[in-house]
Amino acid sequence: MQTVSVAESRQLDDKTINQIGIPSMVLMERAGLKIYEDMVHNADLDLSRVLILAGTGNNGGDGLVVARLLATHNYNVSILTVGNPDHASPDHVNQQKICDYYQIPKVFMNADFNQYTTLVDALFGSGLSRNVGGDFATVIDKANAATAKIHAIDIPSGLNGDTGEVMGTAIKATSTSTIAYAKQGMVKAGANAYTGKLFVDDIGIYKGDTFDNE
Ligand SMILES: NC(=O)C1=CN([C@@H]2O[C@H](COP(=O)(O)OP(=O)(O)OC[C@H]3O[C@@H](n4cnc5c(N)ncnc54)[C@H](O)[C@@H]3O)[C@@H](O)[C@H]2O)[C@H](O)CC1
Ligand SMILES: [K+]
């Protein structure tokens, strides 16, 4: 399995969006579709009652796409957004508007996670830049303590994508859908306790110009 560093992963995003010209919302849609397919068809998940744990960046944006795809296929899904909405990325703001059209329920920090059968970790991905604290740490610890299984998007939140170290605290996922290439920290010794079963999703981002990740 090929891996990339976090910096390389972000460079590939940038190349694909700004050099090749595939709009970021298109990449986010393809990511959401692949993650939805992984959850519905491949991962060992009970999707009776799903809660999306969304940060305010593009990892959260991916989570909102998954929320909408689940809702429009008649799954019971709710969203808990963590962090300051004023800091939300442009694509996140767009995805939240779309979720509002479908009136996907929102819950808050006092939600009982044991009400859900599956939690989706869309707090942080390749944008994690420091130790996790505050509400984010509270939500991660609550998720790990809950009976529900966790499916992580791109990188289990709190896991350092380069070293595999836990940045304060980190999601212990049952399964993870990572975008384009696994990040090198996710295949380090011990990282499996955080990633669980790993799905590598092709969304049209390649080191070269064609698919190369057999
Ligand atoms: N690979 C691709 O082409 C695509 C990736 N996508 C997804 O986008 C994320 C990366 O999104 P980004 O907005 O850059 O960052 P995050 O969502 O990971 O983080 C959000 C935000 O959080 C702040 N932050 C960082 N560390 C902390 C901390 N410890 N506590 C609080 N806040 C923190 C920081 O400001 C970040 O900006 C990638 O993983 C994919 O999931 C696209 O969706 C599709 C294309
Ligand atoms: K994540």
Automatic annotation (TrEMBL):
Keyword presence, Nucleotide-binding: yes
InterPro entries: YjeF_N_dom, YjeF_N_dom_sf, YJEFN_prot_NAXE-like
Binding locations of (6S)-NADPHX: N58, N59, G60, G61, D62, G125, S126, G127, L128, S129, R130, N131, D154
Pfam entry (one): YjeF_N
Cofactor needs: K(+)
Keywords, sorted A to Z: Isomerase, Metal-binding, NAD, NADP, Nucleotide-binding, Potassium
Task performed by this protein: Catalyzes the epimerization of the S- and R-forms of NAD(P)HX, a damaged form of NAD(P)H that is a result of enzymatic or heat-dependent hydration. This is a prerequisite for the S-specific NAD(P)H-hydrate dehydratase to allow the repair of both epimers of NAD(P)HX.
Protein name: NAD(P)H-hydrate epimerase
First-tier enzyme category under EC: isomerase
Cofactor comment text: Binds 1 potassium ion per subunit.
EC numbers, comma separated: 5.1.99.6
Organism for this UniProt entry: Lentilactobacillus fungorum
SUPFAM superfamilies: YjeF N-terminal domain-like
Membership in a protein family: Belongs to the NnrE/AIBP family.
Ranges where the YjeF N-terminal domain occurs: 9-211
Catalysis: reaction(s): (6R)-NADHX = (6S)-NADHX; (6R)-NADPHX = (6S)-NADPHX
Highest taxon, organism lineage: Bacteria
Binding site for K(+): N59, D121, S157
